[in-house]
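wait is this the right file?? whatever heres the structure
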């Protein structure tokens, strides 16, 4: 009932849930994607995952250093858009170093989306409802397991590049 009354918190929660379902399957489906597209071993997968990690660390450090009193919602949306565009770039490339750069930008967008979503929910929710709303917010991590299942079925039908690219476009 509280979320129905508070449209701001509901909007932030909806945005973070959609971002998790569309943006996070790339992390869990990356091993199969690398095997299918790059045809290489675990070292390629490790390097590409490192790219996401470097980007996420960089994005988190930049966010921590910013003095943000306004426009955090726009930065949240910009992070999701950045993540979506870089997912499209990743899906279009077959070059290792370009894929690494694209995944680094995915990491930056992912850190921004996750961090700002949590900050905004905690800031806008009333103190009396914070625990319950954060419990709902944390449900997005369970949805991250549902996303790869659906996306993997989609990948079988249309191919891995198109599937990840279309997720990025929707995001």
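ok assuming it is, sequence goes like this
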């Amino acid at each position: 009932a509280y979320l129905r009354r508070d449209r701001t918190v509901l909007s932030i929660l909806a945005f973070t849930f959609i971002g998790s379902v569309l943006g996070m399957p790339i992390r869990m489906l990356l091993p199969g994607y690398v095997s299918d597209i790059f045809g290489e071993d675990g070292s390629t997968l490790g390097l590409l995952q490192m790219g996401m990690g470097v980007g996420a660390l960089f994005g988190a450090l930049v966010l921590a250093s910013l003095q943000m009193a306004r426009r955090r919602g726009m930065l949240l949306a910009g992070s999701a858009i950045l993540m979506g565009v870089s997912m499209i770039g990743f899906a279009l490339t077959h070059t290792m170093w370009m894929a690494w750069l694209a995944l680094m930008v995915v990491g930056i967008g992912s850190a921004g989306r996750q961090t700002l979503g949590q900050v905004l929910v905690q800031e806008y929710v009333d103190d009396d409802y914070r625990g319950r709303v954060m419990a709902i917010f944390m449900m997005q991590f369970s949805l991250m397991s549902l996303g790869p299942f659906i996306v993997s079925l989609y990948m079988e039908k249309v191919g891995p590049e198109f599937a990840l690219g279309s997720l990025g476009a929707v995001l």
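Residues 96-124 form the longest helix (29 residues). so i think its the right one actually
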